[in-house]
Amino acid sequence: MEDGKIQKVAKYMIGSMTKEEKDFILLIHLCSYLEEDEELFKENWKLMRAEQKNQQDKIPMEEIFPAVYERLGKNP
Hints:
Blueprint: H1 3-15, H2 19-36, H3 38-53, H4 61-64, H5 66-71
Helix pairs in contact: 2-3
């Protein structure tokens, strides 16, 4: 499958997901960093737990997980 087709399928799948499903996928992605970079994982885990305790603020994921977005080559 070509990259363009993969991206279209991925965008369609993400577009049809609920916020909870997207958060779950992000958590799985974060867990993959545990094997690669334990310190990065711990830093992001602490930030995620702090965000859960403060749900009223509705902080965007890019701000909660800046290191992950940086690794993915995306600017928050």
